[in-house]
Structures are given as C-alpha cells and as structure tokens.
Amino acid sequence: MRLEASNRVSSPSDRPTRARRIRWTALLLFAGCAGAGLGVLGFRSGAFSGWWSTSPPPQRLATGPRRVTPHLSVSPLQTLLVAPDGRLWCWSRMGPGQPLPTNDQASAVFRPIGQETDWLTVAAGPTYGLALKTNRSLWAWGTPPVGPGSPAGLAEPIPVLPGTRWRSIATGLAHALAIQADGSLWSWGANNFGQLGDGTTTERSAPVRIGDGTNWTAVSAGLAHSAGMQGDGSVWAWGDDAFVGKPTHPTRVGTDTDWIGLAAGVYITVAWKADGTCHAWGVNAASLLARPAPPPRQPGWFTVAPIPPLRQVSVGSYHALAITPEGTLFAWGQNSFGELGDNTRRSRPQPVRIGRRTDWVALSTWGLLNVGLTDDGAVWAWGTRLDLPQRASRFAEFKRTLALALQRGPQPLPPRYPQFSLAPLCVAQFVPPDLQPPPP
Asked: In terms of pTM, does the model score above 0.85?
C-alpha cells in the first residue's frame, strides 16, 4: 500500500489546481519578502511610524486668547493638557468616565473636559486626573484615587477638600501626592509599598497629611514610589525605591542641599542641580546611562555629565527628557523604541540635543510614551504611540495569510503591539482665534 501511494501519478485534473497553488504561494512569498524588506528599511531609518507607514493628520483644536502657560501630563492610558487659553483637554481612547479603553484598535482623540478656562496645571493617572485652577483649588475626576467619598467613573472634575489652596500635584500609577499652599505634604490612593509616606501600607481614599513639616516645595510620583524636595534643597524618597529601600515614610537621599528639581519615572528618579548636573537612582538606574543593566533591583547612584541649566526634566522607564530655559530639548538613556526622539534606536549614555527647535515649553513621559508642547501650540508625540491603533508585525500578518492560502485551517489573529515613531510627530495643533475658520 505504501508503494502504491508513493508512486501515485497525478491525474490531469489535479495539475491546474496544484499549479495555481504554487503560483499563489510564490506570489505571496514575493509580496511578503518585499513588504518585510520595506518594513525593515522604514524601521531602521525611522521614516515610518512604527510598523506602518501612515499616521493620521494633526487634529486642529480651537483655543481662545492666551491666559496661562501650557502644561501637560502623560500616563499609560491618557494624556492631559492645559491649553494656552486655560481649557482642559484629554487625549485618549477612553470615553468620559470610562475606567479603561473600549477598543485598542481605535485611534485616540482629543476631547475637552468641561468648558472652564481657569485651569493652571494638571497631573494624569492611568484612569484618573488631578488639576489645579488659577485660584489654587484642587480638582479630580475618573476612577479612584480621586478624592474623599467620590464614586468611580467621574466624567467631570469635582473639588478635593474644598476651601483649601494647593501649590503642587503629582500622580503615580494608583496614588496621588499634593502640597498645600502652606508647604504641608498630603497623599492618598494605593499604599502597598508605602508610597503614600504615612508610615503604613494602608490604602487611603482621602488625602492624609504626611508628617508635620511645612517646607515641602516639590513632589513627584513613580510607579510605586515617591520623591519630594524641601526648602533647604534636600531630596527625600519613600515607597518602592531601590536606593533607600522600601521606607513607608520620607527618607533623605544623600546629604547635598543644592538640589533645585526632581522627577520620578516608572522605576527611576532623577534630581538635578543649578549647573545642570543630573543624578539618577532606582531600579536598574544604570540603564538611564545606556550601560548594561546590573542585577535586578540593585540600587545605584549615577551622575550624568553637566548640560545647560534645566527648566524641566521628565523620566520614563529607562530614559529621560529635559528642556532648557531657552526651549531646547535634550534626551538620554535607552532608545529601543525611539523614545529619545533622535530618529534612531541607538541608546545614548549622555544627553543629546533633539532637533533644532528652541520653542519647547512643556513635556511629559511615561514608560516609552513621550508628549511635548511647543510655543506655537503644536502637540508632539514620539516613542510608543498609544494614540494609534495597535498593529501586528508585517511578518506575523504574512505568516497568517500564507497559512490560510495553504488551507491549513482557521488561524488565530497574530498578537498586536503599539506603534511607535523614532522622532517627534505633530499630533495636534491649538489654533488661535485669528486663524480659526469662520462659523458656517
């Protein structure tokens, strides 16, 4: 039986079908190789946005007369912006009050939050937001942590501790920090690693005061750790911080008293001095200097060579961005997904200038996602593009198409990943009144 089966001669009726299959298979192979080649070229050169070569045109956002300095904050699922006219905007795939995106294949859109024009600064959590108004009142919305007694899914901001005035706000993955006008520090939300700093690991649904000090000047929050600066120039850290351990109350970092700013990233914290020198510590902080990662969770303290004086620093997973007083953008650290924005995937151990623009006014980063604002009202994004639909790789799509063509039965959809861009791309433009089209 085996001999007869192995020497079976194809009938004339089988040959055209088999020939067509061979031709189709060859055509698919050629198309797949060509597409993969183009994809690799685009991927290497940074000419394409992630896996695909298309990106939606910038959204035009109407704005009124300039009232405040624009501000923004990035989180894993949304970006919050204060426009030049003081209005509050959200850039996300989530609808108002939704706890999570409803469709990861949809593109993110900009939508206003209310109609007020007196917002001053904002801090974004994954599914919630905090904002200060020009009268220094604190407001919150979204899912917890938002404030005392607030239900989940708030689409509109509500006041937090009405009658109080606030100086600074910060948000982590699931906890929030704020400094009142008198310099006292408050926190609420998740506390499984002591990131609230109240000496416990108890979750707090309402703001609680941290210590009795009144000299806090700045605060920042990471994934499950927090950092703050006091008026004497000292820096403090608490929560899941690899340098000071896991203290449940603020613990001083070093003995220097000439710090002027700090920023907590997902795993790493960066503090800087007046001469532009940056110091980084945290989980695998060596990655920020593009060095081989040390053993997991090994504490480290690393110094970055001085660059011009800094106005703002924002830290992602293992990279950092900085703006100088002149509006120049610098970046350094890991660069696997274009998070530095220098149109390469080459990691940088020292700060490098990004582009030639000198009108950067604000920036924020979380993980591999970066968003920046320029003085002309343009909103820029680079690195992981959570605003675009998630896509499968060309090779995975080709393998599925080939399996279907060869009639190998039902094939599951290949895994989809966020798109990314290697250089800043304009995703929105705030249009001043004199450039807005007349009403119909």
From this structure: no
